[in-house]
Write a sequence for this structure.
């Protein structure tokens, strides 16, 4: 595969500033998402006597006050064929000349497409500033801004065409929701109410107004602790020293707040920022610049799901609606006092704000922001359409988190297991397939314990040859909750477990015993899905034990009969509707063909799968049948809610179809379907949480369902492990 280079022009670590961090994080996110197709190259802005050691991916850096350096760098970049597009991080202060006008020299020389990200948009500019930004706009193929308020400023104050502008939020790390309490003890903040502000220290932060708000609060809440986190900005320190910090310390002493305010005077790395955000109860932003259009600190706090109180600068006004946060007037300490007390005294209100803000900001996580930038880049560089998502590392972290000694917990609140939801056999059967598959590939002995847990759970809910589905958190089985589909899915899991060659005999013997009991009633079933699941289980079981081939034929013929009754005209399907896990019906017949060599099974498997492909692949990406109404034959298909179970089933089926037929198109469709989890879907949003190995619960009409329950997570893992089997065949 050809590799394409994306050039990022801006400041870059080890330089300590927000733009440098942003440049690093965006370039890293893009490469992480699209490697090895993409590589990032940094055109770093440097000071004349900057001898800091920069990384190897720096090419043709620019000396900020050397006008010739801009043109020279652009000429060298023009000669690099691999370099396809430049993304400039624009802030007036990081380029040379008045209002950074030296950048124009670079833009007039560069012959590559340029996407310019504006980190600052100043309303009502002077004539020269207006002209410089207008020139930058005209020399760029696209402008990226980070919130919607900037659109009107650019249109009205700079006369920039709206078509030139696209809004992509400031990128943020993926931080789990509401898991900070467990870190308080570790960080020495046990039983403290933590207020926090962070960012590079300068006098526009307005920290003094927060400090002045605290005395009446501390009388009522003596365990309150305000953290002021961050080093003084290097440029400020060079000209003013620690003047502002010393001013704040004097104010703290005057108000006798030494025991309730703590400075964390250092430039934090990402891990430290996340940890402090996690232990924060209320985030405070007292920024005194009403025109600040972008704040990385505010974006990070919002993305971590913090309750936020802020002054009404542009970024805060765009982000913090009354449902998502609290705005207070500039220089109003009393307003901070009231707002802080309101949040501390009303935990349900606080929790609602946090939930709403966290949900709202999922599109700002770095993987989602990387997709948004890539979609712009490929508008101007058609070759980038050849790039595909990188396959994520297979992680079982969230699966293990959902699993206790009894089994896999059914639901979660965000990523936190909800033990009140109890356990389902459906989830534990799928988890058994995942853990067995994982063990087969990696032979990790630790996984054997997971296999035992899930297998023991199935044994626990097995009565009278039936596998019951629901168990309460106290271990009580609901004997009214039994279905053919649950039973068939469990047979699939038990059959698959028997096929794992290096699994201990004790586990395989137990699986066989449970399988034989469960299979005894299968020939009375009517559900096509239950029968399909059972056929797959029988296929795997026969690899280690002799099975009744007549039973396979009977079950397969039942699916054929359904197909022949319902497949009329263009409707090539087993039923008069499409609901969940549809592709498993086709997949079962691929397995039946392998067992019997009956070409009729193969023909119907192919026909029905091609029909399903035509119904679910839209404009080059996969869109599973939505749960909100499904798809009746004479009706209109539902597009939402899209569920991971449907995507996972389709991936598994297409992989199996390729293995049976060797049709290369099936591998292409399998990869496209899997990429639904990675962001190639109707919302262009990530469904898979790469930091923990969990999957969100699906796509609603206008948002991602952010809970990471058992079904979604195990279905993602089933799809990921299936893709692993054909990754060398994917072209």
């Amino acid at each position: 595969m050809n590799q394409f280079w994306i050039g990022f022009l801006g400041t870059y670590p080890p330089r300590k500033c927000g733009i440098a961090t942003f440049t690093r994080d965006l370039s890293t996110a893009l490469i992480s998402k699209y490697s090895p197709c993409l590589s990032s190259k940094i055109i770093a802005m440097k000071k004349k006597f900057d001898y800091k050691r920069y990384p190897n991916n720096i090419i043709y850096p620019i000396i900020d006050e050397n006008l010739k350096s801009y043109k020279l760098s652009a000429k060298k970049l023009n000669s690099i064929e691999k370099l396809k597009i430049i993304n400039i991080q624009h802030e007036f202060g990081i380029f040379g000349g008045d209002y950074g006008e030296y950048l124009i020299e670079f833009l007039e020389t560069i012959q590559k497409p340029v996407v310019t990200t504006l980190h600052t948009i100043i309303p009502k500019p002077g004539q020269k500033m207006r002209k410089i930004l207008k020139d930058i706009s005209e020399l760029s193929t696209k402008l990226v801004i980070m919130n919607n308020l900037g659109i009107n400023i650019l249109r009205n104050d700079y006369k920039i065409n709206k078509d030139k502008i696209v809004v992509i939020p400031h990128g943020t790390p993926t931080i789990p929701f509401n898991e900070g309490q467990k870190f308080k003890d570790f960080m020495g903040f046990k039983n403290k109410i933590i207020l926090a502000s962070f960012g590079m220290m300068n006098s526009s932060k307005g920290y003094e107004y927060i400090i002045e708000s605290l005395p009446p609060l501390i009388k009522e809440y003596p365990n309150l602790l305000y953290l002021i986190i961050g080093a003084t900005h290097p440029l400020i320190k060079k000209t003013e020293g620690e003047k502002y910090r010393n001013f704040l310390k004097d104010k703290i002493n005057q108000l006798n707040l030494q025991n309730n305010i703590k400075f964390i005077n250092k430039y934090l790395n990402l891990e430290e920022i996340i940890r402090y955000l996690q232990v924060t109860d209320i985030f405070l932003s007292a920024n005194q610049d009403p025109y600040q259009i972008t704040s990385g600190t505010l974006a990070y706090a919002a993305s971590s799901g913090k309750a936020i109180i802020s002054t009404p600068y542009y970024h805060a006004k765009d982000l913090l609606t009354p449902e998502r946060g609290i705005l207070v007037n500039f220089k109003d300490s009393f307003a901070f006092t009231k707002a802080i007390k309101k949040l501390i005294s009303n935990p349900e209100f606080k929790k609602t704000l946090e939930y709403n803000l966290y949900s709202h900001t999922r599109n700002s996580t770095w993987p989602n922001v990387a997709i948004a930038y890539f979609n712009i880049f490929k508008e101007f560089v058609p070759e980038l359409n050849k790039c595909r998502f990188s396959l994520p590392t297979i992680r079982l972290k969230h699966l293990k988190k959902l699993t206790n000694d009894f089994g896999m917990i059914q639901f979660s609140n965000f990523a936190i297991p909800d033990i009140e939801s109890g356990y389902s056999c459906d989830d534990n059967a799928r988890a058994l397939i995942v853990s067995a598959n994982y063990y087969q590939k990696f032979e990790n002995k630790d996984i054997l314990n997971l296999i035992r847990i899930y297998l023991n759970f199935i044994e626990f809910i097995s009565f009278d040859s039936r596998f019951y589905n629901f168990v309460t958190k106290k271990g009580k089985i609901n004997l009214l909750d039994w279905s053919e589909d649950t039973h068939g899915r469990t047979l699939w899991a038990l059959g698959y477990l028997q096929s794992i060659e290096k699994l201990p005999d004790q586990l395989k013997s137990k699986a066989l015993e449970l399988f034989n009991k469960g299979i005894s009633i299968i020939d009375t079933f009517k559900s096509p899905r239950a029968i399909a699941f059972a056929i797959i289980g029988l296929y795997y079981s026969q690899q280690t034990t002799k099975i009744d081939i007549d039973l396979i034929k009977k079950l397969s013929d039942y699916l054929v009969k359904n197909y022949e009754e319902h497949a009329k005209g263009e409707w090539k399907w087993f039923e008069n509707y499409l609901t969940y896990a549809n592709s498993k019906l086709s997949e079962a017949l691929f397995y039946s063909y392998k067992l019997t060599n009956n070409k009729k099974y193969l023909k119907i498997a192919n026909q029905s799968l091609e029909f399903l492909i035509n119904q679910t692949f839209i404009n080059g990406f996969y869109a599973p049948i939505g749960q909100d109404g499904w798809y009746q034959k004479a009706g209109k298909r539902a597009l939402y809610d899209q569920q991971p179970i449907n995507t996972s089933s389709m991936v598994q089926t297409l992989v199996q179809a390729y293995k049976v037929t060797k049709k290369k198109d099936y591998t292409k469709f399998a990869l496209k379907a899997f990429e639904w989890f990675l962001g190639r879907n109707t919302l262009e949003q990530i469904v898979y949480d790469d930091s923990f190995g969990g999957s969100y619960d699906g796509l609603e009409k206008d948002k991602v369902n952010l809970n990471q329950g058992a079904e979604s997570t195990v279905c993602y893992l089933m799809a990921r492990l299936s893709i692993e089997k054909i990754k060398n065949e994917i072209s």
